[in-house]
Specification:
seven-stranded mixed β-sheet; single chain; D-Maltodextrin-Binding Protein, domain 2; Dipeptide-binding Protein, domain 3; 21 strands; globular; 3 domains; Dipeptide-binding Protein, domain 1
Length: 536
């Protein structure tokens, strides 16, 4: 490798110094009372979309957990627990009653009511794949009184509690009825929750900074905090998320004490942190992530199943993981759509993903399919290190197999917005993008957002129309034994690989980094800021 020219090196340092100075000036502009404890964090992405129901973007989900709460949570043993509400189930398994706990208030001072929660559940279910399935088996959902929500099924459905409790993609966040009445295709205009933090709207700069303050009216549960369940005790006065697209700048800011936490530092830069005795580096999300590619089923070339299979055969997990993570201590090849190491994890149907790909076979399949060189519009986010490398590597793997690729750079929030477009690729749409899921988002075929064959109206971005997949998913929630569910889950995965519903590209566990002045950080698949204390 040629050494970096001195002038270029100086300019890079100057740019980083300028960015760091801008951060100091930016955060100083936030009105923090004297003596208040302010925790500054660099998250994996800037945030522009604030509605946690209309997107599955992790940064928006994390924002959701700051200001909203959920009826149920999930603890570190992967079991649902009461959060805003407790629940009972009728003997026939068809009636679920949820009772709100005392003292719940929205940030505007109004009491949380069952009517608010009914409206919130309906809006959530309209967007969430598992929620859509649940509603198809639901006779009614209504407020029995101010504190009681009653959900009555029309037929057995085994995953009611697990769906309402699930920690991600999409969590069932509770909102006031006036907000939850917003159509699920439209973003909410207010951001009022009942959660442990309040959103400071006056300090919000989309894509640059977001600020939260402690909700002094929040009443934590008495149980110890565990994942998204238990007592969410806020021990700092404000939390600021500041955006730093340049990984080196974020590292410098943590080293100099200008920030307190980096959610996902670039792994090849970790030695710059581990050498600082005042910092700690560790894995908080021990289950990790699945990285994956998704194609658009609506338009050429991926409306052709043979061409989708050719794209899958072109992929090589090791190449993608090597570019994304680098250090094999933090990643593993995995063919399980439900995540390796989970109860339903299986290699069924994974084929060439576990053998290093098959570019020659992909070329032959492209020829058989009559591929005419239609460009693959591949969206490439440039500002988020956890999703930037995959499209670059995939573009080359696809080209090696004979695809024409149009790699289009953009920031992540633009991608998050654009992937919702069903326009033709030539008119602002897309053919392929890459993202990551925490394992609890994919660990069964009901919560996994990609395993939804509902087409244009119901499926996740990419919009496969797959009645057989929907039949298999329905069978999964109606059988009675774990053995039957495991067998059906394997059949679902085989079918999803045959249709190339999506392309799993391996599993990884990114470390976080933080100042030792912080204590109480919780191991969880969701990055949380409750229970964290900051020393003077």
């Amino acid at each position: 490798m040629r050494p970096e020219p001195l002038q270029a090196s100086f300019l890079n340092r100057a740019v980083r110094k300028s960015l760091l100075a801008s951060l100091v000036a930016l955060t100083a502009a936030v009105a923090v009372p004297a003596g208040a404890q302010d925790l500054k964090a660099v998250m994996h992405s800037g945030i522009r979309v604030l509605d946690p129901i209309i997107t599955t973007a992790h940064i928006t989900r994390n924002h959701g957990y700051m200001i909203y709460d959920t009826l149920l949570g999930v603890d570190e043993n992967m079991k649902p627990q009461p959060q805003m509400a407790s629940w009972t189930v009728s003997d026939d398994g068809l009636v679920y009653s949820f009772t709100l706990r005392d003292g719940l208030k929205w940030h505007d001072g109004q009491p949380v009511t069952a009517e608010d929660c009914v409206a919130s559940l309906k809006r959530w279910a309209d967007r969430d794949g598992g929620g859509q399935m649940l509603m198809r088996s639901t006779r009614s959902i209504e407020a029995k009184d101010a504190k009681t929500i009653v959900l009555t099924l029309s037929e057995p459905f085994a995953y009611v509690i697990e769906l309402i409790a699930k920690p991600s993609a999409v969590p069932a966040f509770m909102m006031p009825k006036r907000m939850a009445g917003t159509p699920s295709t439209e973003a909410i205009k207010e951001h009022v929750g009942s959660g442990p933090f309040r959103f400071v709207e006056s300090a919000f700069q989309p894509g640059v900074r977001i600020v939260y303050e402690k909700n002094k009216d929040y009443m934590p549960r008495s149980e110890p905090a565990s994942w998204t369940a238990g007592g969410k005790v806020v021990k700092v006065d404000t939390v600021e998320w500041v955006t730093m697209p340049d990984a080196q700048t974020a590292i410098n800011a943590l080293n100099s004490g200008e920030i307190d936490f980096i959610e996902q530092p670039q792994i090849d830069l970790l030695p710059l942190l581990t050498s600082n005795d005042e910092l700690e580096v560790g894995v908080l999300n021990t289950l990790g992530y699945q990285t994956m590619g998704r194609v658009n089923f609506l338009y050429p070339p991926f409306d052709n199943p043979k061409i989708r299979r050719a794209a899958l055969m072109a992929m090589k997990q090791e190449d993608v993981l090597g570019a994304l993570v680098g250090n094999p201590d933090y990643y593993s090849v995995c063919g399980a759509m439900y995540g390796c190491g989970t109860p339903l994890g299986t290699d069924a149907g994974a084929g060439t993903l576990l053998t290093g790909g098959d570019p020659a076979g992909a070329k032959a399949l492209l020829k058989e399919a009559g591929y005419d060189g239609t460009p693959v519009v591949l969206m490439q986010p440039t500002d988020v290190t956890t999703v930037s490398p995959q499209p670059v590597v995939a573009a080359q793997l696809l080209r090696n197999a004979g695809f024409t690729v149009d790699l289009q750079p953009m920031d992540w929030q633009t991608l998050v917005t654009r992937r919702a477009s069903q326009a033709k690729p030539s008119e602002g749409g897309w053919n392929m993008f890459f993202t990551n899921w925490v394992i609890p988002e994919v660990w069964n075929p009901i919560v996994n957002p990609m395993l939804n064959g509902g087409g244009r109206k119901a499926a996740w971005f990419g919009w496969p129309d797959d009645p057989k997949l929907e039949e298999l998913r329905k069978a999964f929630v109606t059988v009675k034994t774990d053995g039957e569910r495991k067998a059906i889950a394997a059949d679902i995965q085989k079918h999803a690989y045959e249709t190339v519903n999506y392309i799993p590209l391996g599993q990884y566990v990114p470390p976080a980094a933080w100042s030792k002045s912080l204590s109480g950080l919780m191991k969880s698949p969701i990055t949380t800021f409750w229970n964290i204390a900051k020393a003077e």
